[in-house]
Structures are given as C-alpha cells and as structure tokens.
C-alpha cells in the first residue's frame, strides 16, 4: 500500500494584478553612501587646497624652488659682476644702482630689465631708459636725460621745464637762474618754439630776460632796460628779424623806449618814455620807427 501526500489546489491569480516586487533598499543605501563619500572627499580636497593657498604654502614652495635655481645659476657663472651706464650726467650713479636693485653676485636671471626701465624713467632727470642683460655677467643701462630749458612761473610758483615743456619734478629752480623765465598757463608747450625764434638773432637774444604768453596766442618779450617787445601771433620769426635789422641800422633800442609793437605786418610802432604820441612815420619799406 502506498501513501500519497495530499496537495492543496493552487489558487488562481486574479486577473489584472502583478506579483509584488521585493524593495531594493540595500542597493539604494549603498549608492547614496558612495555618492556622499565622493562629495565629502571632493569637499575635503578643495578645502585643503584652499587652506594651502591662503596659508601661502604654494607660494613658499615656488619661491624656494626659484631661489634654489638662481643659486645654482650664480654658481654656474650667471651672477652680476658689473653695471654699465651710458648717458648719465645729472642723475647720481648711486641713485641708479639703488633703483636697479642689483649688487655684485646678484643672479642675472632674476633681474627684470622691463621693471628696471619703468623705475628708472620715474627718476626726475631721466627722460627715457633702455636696460639689457648682457650675459653672462653684465647689466647695461642707457639713459637719455631731460635738458632744462626754462623757468616757468605759474600761480606764484617757479619750476624748471625741459625741452618738451614737461615739468622736471623735485628740482629746485635756484640752481638754474641762468635760464629764461616764461609766464603763462600754456607757456611750457610753446617755449621751445619761442626760444628757437629768439636765438636766431644772437644780439637781441642776449637782451631777453623773460617772456609772457598773451591770451594763449602770442608772446610779449621783456628786454633789459624794461623794454617790452610785442610779437605778432603769426610770423614771429619775421618780426623778430625785422627788429634786429632796424636795431643794427638805427639803434632803436638805444633810445628811451618803453614798448616796441611788432604785431602789425607792415609797420613797427615804438612807444618812448615821454608823454608824446608814438612816432609813426611809414617808410617806403613799410617800417615805422
């Protein structure tokens, strides 16, 4: 006789329903943990780099490496031995060396010619500068200095200007009393052209003591003896040559003259110290004396 296990009949699944899935909580938890760890590691890395940057660690390491490299370069024969300077006249040699910031044995590879050029051109007398490294051991400097042209009186102050009409800073005018004096707000930029005209007649040039710019258009010249010469707005050179010729021929400046007016192209008007009217006699050549 055999025995058979009694089996229960299977229940049929209701139509329209799917079997329930098991939750994947463990998998999701692992993914979140991994992402969180990566974010934490990235934050820690960025924070560490930021701290090192703020602390200056990178800068110190770079500086240390550079100093080591420069020390090796000096040992290899690339240290400054001499500084050659051309064009220096008024600028002190010690001031140039101080501005360059180099001394014997300084690593020539660490020397910055462009930065040195900028510093040199900030000195009072230096107009332009050129700086070079001449390997293996020399620094070469060529400077062009400003040339004092005149004393400029403006707003109660007297300063020294150069040939470009620029102010020469930190220069005392007491050391340049032999320069001509110019007056007027826009006088500096026109002084070089005026002095070219004045110097074209040496005998008259010696008599000029000052020049006053009038209305930004022309000049009045002050001569020895208190004589004012009024130059025209245009062709000042021609008027100045005319006065020189008349002085040679007639000695007009030897008279008791106060003002010589050269503003009119066809005449020269002279005002004397007397109370009489200015002499006005037109000649055939268009001159008045």
Automatic annotation (TrEMBL):
Keywords: Cell cycle, Cell division, Cell inner membrane, Cell membrane, Membrane, Transmembrane, Transmembrane helix. GO terms for biological process: cell septum assembly; FtsZ-dependent cytokinesis. It is a single-pass type II membrane protein. Residues 1-25 are annotated as: Disordered. InterPro entries: Cell_div_FtsQ/DivIB_C, FtsQ, FtsQ_C_sf, POTRA, POTRA_FtsQ_type. Residues 7-25 have a biased composition (Basic residues). Residues 78-146 form the POTRA domain. It is found in: Cell inner membrane; Membrane. Pfam families: FtsQ_DivIB_C, POTRA_1. One of its GO terms (cellular component) is plasma membrane. Belongs to the FtsQ/DivIB family. FtsQ subfamily. Essential cell division protein. This is Cell division protein FtsQ. It comes from Denitrobaculum tricleocarpae. The lineage of its organism: Bacteria, Pseudomonadati, Pseudomonadota, Alphaproteobacteria, Rhodospirillales. The gene is ftsQ.
């Amino acid at each position: 006789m055999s025995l058979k296990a009694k089996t229960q009949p299977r229940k049929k699944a209701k139509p329209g329903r799917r079997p329930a899935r098991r939750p994947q909580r463990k998998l999701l938890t692992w993914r979140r943990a991994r992402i969180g760890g990566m974010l934490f590691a990235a934050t820690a890395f960025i924070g560490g780099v930021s701290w090192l940057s703020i602390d200056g660690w990178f800068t110190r390491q770079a500086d240390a490496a550079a100093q080591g490299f420069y020390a090796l370069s000096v040992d290899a024969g690339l240290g400054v031995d001499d500084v050659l300077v051309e064009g220096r006249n008024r600028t002190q040699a010690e001031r140039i060396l101080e501005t360059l910031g180099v001394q014997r044995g300084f690593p020539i590879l660490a020397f910055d010619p462009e930065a040195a050029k900028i510093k040199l051109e900030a000195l009072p007398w230096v107009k332009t500068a050129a700086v070079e490294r001449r390997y293996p051991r020399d620094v070469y400097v060529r400077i062009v200095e400003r040339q004092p042209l005149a004393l400029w009186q403006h707003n109660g102050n007297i300063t020294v200007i150069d040939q470009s009409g620029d102010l020469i800073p930190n220069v005392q005018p007491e050391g340049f009393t032999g320069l001509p004096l110019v007056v007027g707000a826009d006088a500096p930029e026109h002084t070089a052209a005026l002095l070219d005209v004045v110097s074209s007649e040496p005998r008259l040039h010696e008599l000029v003591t000052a020049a006053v710019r009038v209305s930004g258009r022309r000049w009045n010249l002050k001569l020895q003896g208190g004589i004012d010469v009024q130059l025209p707005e245009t062709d000042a050179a021609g008027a100045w040559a005319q006065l020189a010729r008349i002085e040679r021929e007639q000695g007009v400046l030897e008279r008791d003259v106060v003002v010589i007016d050269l503003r009119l192209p066809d005449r020269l008007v002279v005002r004397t110290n007397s109370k009489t009217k200015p002499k006005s006699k037109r000649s055939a050549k268009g001159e008045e004396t």
